[in-house]
Amino acid sequence: MKCRLWAVGLAVIGVVFCMSPVLAKEAADQYLDLGQKKLELSRGLTKEAAACVECHSKKTPGVVESWKLGKMGHASVSCYDCHVVDKSSPMASQCEGTKGTNTYISPMVSSGVCARCHPTEVDQFLKSGHAMLASKAVVDNKGMDKLIHHFEGGEFIGIDRNDPQNRASKEAGCQMCHGGKVELGVDHKPINGTWPAGVGTRYPDGSVGNCTVCHTRHQFSVAEARKPDACASCHLGPDHPNIEIYMESKHGQIYQAQGEDWEWDSAPDAWEPGDYTAPTCATCHMSGIGELATTHNINERLKYDLVHKRSVVRSGERGDGEKGELLMKKVCANCHGSTHVEGQRDMLDNTVNLYNSYWGKIVAMKKDLKEKNLLKDDPWKDGFQELEYYFWHHAGRRARHGTAMNGPDYTHWHGFFQLFQIYKDIEDIYNMRIKTGKIEEISTVMSTGPI
């Protein structure tokens, strides 16, 4: 083992001396200093861990097979290391194999557990929109609570909020991507459909975040996380069709034509152009590339908030948009010249400014209607407010994301072509209410809106 450690140490020293001063400083700023730490890997399973593997090889063989094929299995990180919790943990329970022993486990493994071996990655993740911000919409937003339970859950047609069917939309829909707040039963196991859940899941022990959304358990494959399919289960559909836009883009076309031949399993910060011939979602937003180190903060390389009603340069908990712009340009510079990069970024500025110009006029009309008491209390029976929603939440996002990711069909046909028509309908409703001083009895929007 000592010989191995010396070999690892010499290799690290060699890499550091080969790096440019700039790269060395970047690395020093972004990674833990392991120079003073003892790195030791002891292979083999403990008696307790071997018992877990033996039992689950019979009860859940698919889980064990995935673990065996992953790097966790190769490094002898076992079920025992991730699932065992202290007896005092609010999530502590016992499975059939641990009853009568002092071993307590939890089926729930949060980012807090992952942080024991991956502290830098989890620290970055917790600062991103994939952690607390992701579950905010489901857990903290009163407007979303009304949408999920009163409208989608059928409370308005008489389905009680405590009826299990009321939570169907939440537990099978919103929560699976955003994450929710885990509730526990008397046996300390999750209840009420609150687990498993998405990336921003909040756990009873206070930890936040679910790493397995991107690194599917129990193989935890980095190759899987680097493929656009990993993002596709949540970043799709009429409101943010990111995977559709990517597949339409030139980047996506190259991925579809050549991706099978790419090298997907290179070490973090060593996965560079050449291993692939076009970027995936992970390349631009997370992976180490050129002088940039790997990050698990997906806000870090973004300039604008393209999700909410008005697009602004990111600040505060949503990131530093000015810095994000510089970092994204550094990503692009690995494959494109400055003229191309500047042109693409100017195009995004123009798209955001045009969208915001439309949106500003809608906000002014709505303010006027509200002052004249010409808005219904129920926005889903009010044509003006329904169209306002589809304007920003669906077509508006498509136009903005289409430009940011280079999907022209989404910027145009699914974006601005629909935006100007929705705007004209909104304007007509506004003018009619101002002229008559009345609100239409029946909503003028008789479907689920523009798709």
Question: Low-confidence segments, ≥5 residues, pLDDT <50?
Answer: 1-25
Q: What structural class do you assign from the helix and strand content?
A: mainly alpha
Query: How many extended strands?
Result: 4
Describe the global form.
globular
Q: How are the strands ordered across the major sheet?
A: 1-2
> Helix amount, in percent?
40-55%
Biggest sheet details: 2 strands, antiparallel
Multimeric status of the protein = single chain
Our estimate of the beta-strand percent is under 5%
Helix-strand topology string? HHHHHHEEHHHHHEEHHHHHHHHH
**Count of individual helical segments:** 20
Mean pLDDT: 91
Distance between the termini: 61 Å
* Cα-atom radius of gyration: 25 Å
Throw out a few tags for this protein.
451 residues; mainly alpha; two-stranded antiparallel sheet; 50% helix; 2% strand
Task: Report on this structure.
It is a single chain. By secondary structure, the protein is mainly alpha-helical. The chain has 20 helices and four strands. A hairpin with a 5-residue loop joins strand 3 and strand 4. It starts with a helix and ends in a 15-residue tail after the last helix.
